[in-house]
Amino acid sequence: MSDSDILQVNHVTKVYPNGIKGLDDISFNVKRGEFIAVVGLSGAGKSTLFRSINRMQDITNGEIFINGTDISKLKGKELRHFRRKIGMIFQSFNLVNRLTVQKNVLSGRVGYYSTWKTILGLYSKGDKEKAVRSLDHVNMLKKLYDRADSLSGGQMQRVAIARTMMQEPDLVLADEPVASLDPKTSEGVMKDLRNLNVKDHDTVLVNLHSIDLALEFADRIIGIRDGQLVFDKAAAQSTPDDLKEIYEGGNS
Amino acid sequence: MHTSEVPRRSFVKKYHIKGMIVIAILIVLFLYSLKICGVDPSLFVSNIAQFGVLIGQMSNPDWSYFSFIWDPLVQTVQMAILGTTIGTIFAIPAAFLAARNLDHSKVVHGTSRFVLDIFRTLPSLLLAAILVAIFGIGPTTGTITLAIFSFGMISKLFYEVLETVDMGPAEAMKASGASIIQIIRLAIIPQIAGQFCSFFLYTLEVNVRSSTVLGYVGAGGLGLYLQQTIDEFNYSETAVVILATFATVLVIDILSNYLRRKLQ
Ligand SMILES: Nc1ncnc2c1ncn2[C@@H]1O[C@H](COP(=O)(O)OP(=O)(O)OP(=O)(O)O)[C@@H](O)[C@H]1O
Ligand SMILES: [Mg+2]
């Protein structure tokens, strides 16, 4: 593995307790600063891959290195500190509806706080300023004191991106971040993700169901089918037909 | 042109045959239990005159008696507040253990639920009677009774709220490196705090009502005076006790309804 690789996935297999293979001997490396689109049919194993990378679930076989560390060995506090450096964006945004945008964004920082400070709801002045900057980045500063459930889907996803920025992540995993948004809003959210990559130099992996968005935004495209890697090419060298093949191949 | 057909309901569904049968069975069961228990409905009619006499005496409340019952009245409310609070303190961790959606084993929530179910089967008056035998007569016993009763009731109400919680934010926080306590504080509590307070107030309401009768078995509060005045046929004093109880319950209800509406 070269020093510029932030993530290394080696022969990873994930078998769920019910016997279903989520991932089947999959291997690839990711260079620091890459923006990668992961595409594949529903059930191909995209979410499984992401949840394995930040250890939200354990893999059955193989190994995953992040910044050279074998993540399967991490436990307790070490595991939590490791997760701080990996941002995750969800299709369903996962904001706390009853809280303000500000509180939601600040909560992205919680991994850096002691339990006691969290219980009392105390955040440092520096982090409050950071929350303002993060929201400004995604053009949501005007909503600072609004309740999260008063926002539209696109706005919620922007706030979720600002929350992730609070972590100062090295790697961002976005699991179908625009699947429930209209095309125009999707563009906006994708641009915000792209900014994370360009301005903050984060490495970004994003699951997409849209071939157009994948070709437009990604540096590199990875295709998954039945838990296996079936495509891996620079976006500039991929054609829409290549991507259709990821979806349709195997059935024909 | 082809028009789709509206699906037909079967005869049984159309005339609600099942519902009718259930109602008929209930009526038969009701009459049958009257007979078994020796309940004589005619007694109710023939004694209605006696009721009139009682009402007559009660309609002349002896207001001077009020000064005697002020202290027990306050005690009753204190018992209810203290009992509900103590019960709630124990109910919160119990509810977290019993909730199915939180991250722990089936054994844990299964056992917790079983234990909580047992707590809830105890009628509060029976509980009070037993506790009087253990702790003696007085408001301490009443408070413990209400605490146990509240524990059973609140833990169930609370775990049901917990089970409706959206776990998405919790997942997001876990993924960003939060500990379980931080997750509960930041992702779960904001979702449930309003409903928890509302259920606390509701239980308090119920407890104020039931604490007025606990005195009947010696567990402190106003109930004792209710019993005494009735035993001595001082219905004009009984009337004061009942009216005072009524007023207290009403005030608590109004207060708690007001607060609960604020919490929505
Ligand atoms: N917790 C689980 N238990 C058992 N099987 C699971 C679990 N999670 C996912 N699977 C199975 O693993 C396979 C891969 O699922 P995964 O969610 O990773 O797919 P995906 O590519 O993210 O699909 P989608 O586009 O629908 O989100 C599927 O067959 C799915 O049914
Ligand atoms: Mg998925």
TrEMBL record, chain A:
Gene Ontology cellular component terms for the protein in this record: membrane
Keyword match ATP-binding: yes
Key word Transcription regulation present: no
Keywords: ATP-binding, Cell membrane, Membrane, Nucleotide-binding, Phosphonate transport, Translocase, Transport
SUPFAM superfamilies, alphabetized: P-loop containing nucleoside triphosphate hydrolases
Gene Ontology MF terms: ABC-type phosphonate transporter activity; ATP binding; ATP hydrolysis activity
All residue ranges annotated as the ABC transporter domain in the record: 7-251
Protein's name in the database: Phosphonate ABC transporter ATP-binding protein
Organism of derivation: Fructilactobacillus fructivorans
Gene that produces this protein: phnC
TrEMBL record, chain B:
Membrane topology, record value: Multi-pass membrane protein
Main location: membrane
InterPro entries from the UniProt entry: MetI-like (IPR000515), MetI-like_sf (IPR035906), PhnE/PtxC (IPR005769)
Domain (ABC transmembrane type-1): residue spans on this chain: 73-256
Compartments it resides in: Cell membrane
Transmembrane segments: 15-34, 79-98, 118-138, 183-204, 239-259
Annotated keywords: Cell membrane, Membrane, Transmembrane, Transmembrane helix, Transport
Keyword Membrane: yes
GO terms for MF: ABC-type phosphonate transporter activity
Gene Ontology cellular-component annotations: plasma membrane
Homology family: Belongs to the binding-protein-dependent transport system permease family.
PANTHER family (alphabetical): ABC TRANSPORT SYSTEM PERMEASE PROTEIN P69, PHOSPHONATES TRANSPORT SYSTEM PERMEASE PROTEIN
Protein name: Phosphonate ABC transporter, permease protein PhnE
Organism encoding this protein: Fructilactobacillus fructivorans
Gene for this chain: phnE
